[in-house]
Amino acid sequence: MSEEASQPSTRAQSGGEKKDSKKRTHEKNEKREDEIPIAKRRKHGKDSEEEFPMNVPFKIVDGVRHLSPYWAVYRSHAKGRWIGRKMVDVFSQEFLSTNKNYAKVACKLGRIFVNGVQTVDCDYVMTSRDYIEHYAHRHEHPVRDMPIKVISESDDLLVVDKPPSLPVHACGQYAIHTVLGQLRVNEGRTGLRVLHRLDRTTSGILMFAKNYETDLEFKSTLKQGDWTKEYVCRVEGAFPEEELTCDEPIAPLVLSMGIQCVRKDGKSAHSSFKRLWTDGNESVVLVKITTGRTHQIRVHSQFLGYPIVGDKIYNSTVWGETKGKSAAYGKPFDELCQDVQAAHKSQNWHEKVDPEYEARMEKMASEKLEPEPKNLPKENRPDYDPICLNCNVISKSVPPGHYQLFLHCLRYETEKWSYKTELPDWAVQPSEKVPLVC
Prior knowledge:
Helix content: 10-25%
Strand content: 25-35%
Keywords: Isomerase, RNA-binding
Function: Responsible for synthesis of pseudouridine from uracil.
Structural class: alpha+beta
Domain Pseudouridine synthase RsuA/RluA-like: 156-301
Region (Disordered): 1-49
Organism: Caenorhabditis auriculariae
Distance between the termini: 38 Å
CATH class of the domain at 225-344 and 405-427: Alpha Beta
Number of helices: 11
CATH superfamily of the domain at 225-344 and 405-427: Pseudouridine synthase
CATH topology of the domain at 225-344 and 405-427: Pseudouridine synthase
C-alpha cells in the first residue's frame, strides 16, 4: 500500500497534553540567548532557527516514509581536523557517500561558500574561522513511519519516546527525517535543546530542554554523573545468569563515521549487564551505564562476546574471527580502521552508480566550468542534478536492519525526577503476556 501526501504524517502523540503547551518555545532569558555567538549556541545543542524545508512531498510504502528530494544548504564551522587542509580534500575524505570528484566539481560550479563568499578555488586551504555553506540536492534516507510519543511535558522540558530509524538532529542525509525535524514540521516546535543523544537506530527516552536555564541545569547534573541510565538490548548467545561488568576504555576508530573501539588510550567507560531472559540462542539484557561514551553499550557488549543482534557495525567478522571479543582484532588499528570503513560505506548496500555518471564527474573535474549565479534561488534549481550521486543511482531495497537496532533507552532518572518507557516488543519474553517490569 502507498499513501501520497504533501504534509508529514509521522507525528508526536501527547496523550491529551494541552495544545498550547505543546507548541511553546523557550521564552526565558531571551536577551542572553541573543548575545551568545552562533558557534556557541550550536555547541549547546539547540535546534537551529535557520531556514528549514517545509511541505516537502512524501509517500508511505509498507510502513516506510520516502521523502522527495529537495535543494538544501549544508552549514558547518571548520572542525579542528580540517584546518590547514584543502577544502575539496576535506569533503572527499570526510563525506564518504559522495563521488570522489564531487567536491571539486561543486566548488567549480560555485556551490560552496566560505564566510559568505562564493569560493571556486579548488586549492583553498581551510582556516579556524571558516564557516562553510554548501548548496546541494538532498535525498533523505527513508525512515519508518512511526509516531513520536510524548511521555512528559512541562514549560521547561519535553520528554519523548523516540522511535527507531530517526536521528535526533540533522546530519548527513537527514534533516526533515529527524526527531527535531518531525517535531518542527508536525507540531511547530522550534528552539528545543538536546539534553542527550541516541543513535539513529536506537529507540527510547529522549529529553529536550525548552530554555537556556533548563539546558544548563540538566547538563550540569549529567556531567556530574547524577543520572541513572538504563537500557535494554538483545544480544547474540546465551548470556550468563550472573551480572557482568565492563570497564574497558573506548576511543574512536573511524572518526568521520563515529565508529568506536576498545583501546587502552581511550576514555574511561563503565557498563553493567544483567540478563532478563534467554532462549539459548539470543538474550535480552538490562544495561546500566555510568558514563556516556559514543556507542558504549554496543562496544562493551562486543567486547564481552555478546554483540547486539543484527548490529551492522559491531557484530561482524571484520573485527576478527571472534567479532572483536576481548578486543582480539587480529590486526593493527590502522588496518582495522580501513577494513571497517570499507565495510560500512553507504553505497555498499543500497546504491548502484550509473557508469555514465562516473565518467561525467571525471570529465567535469578536469575541465573549466562556468560557476552558477551566486544568488540562484532554490526554487529555480532543477529536480534532477547531474552531479548529485543520488540522482544517478539505482536504489536497492533497504534491509530491515538499517532502520532498527535492538537497543532501547528504558529509563533515565535522578533523585529529583524519573522517566521511563515500556519494554519494546522485541524485548518481551515470548511466554509473557505483558511487558516485564524492571
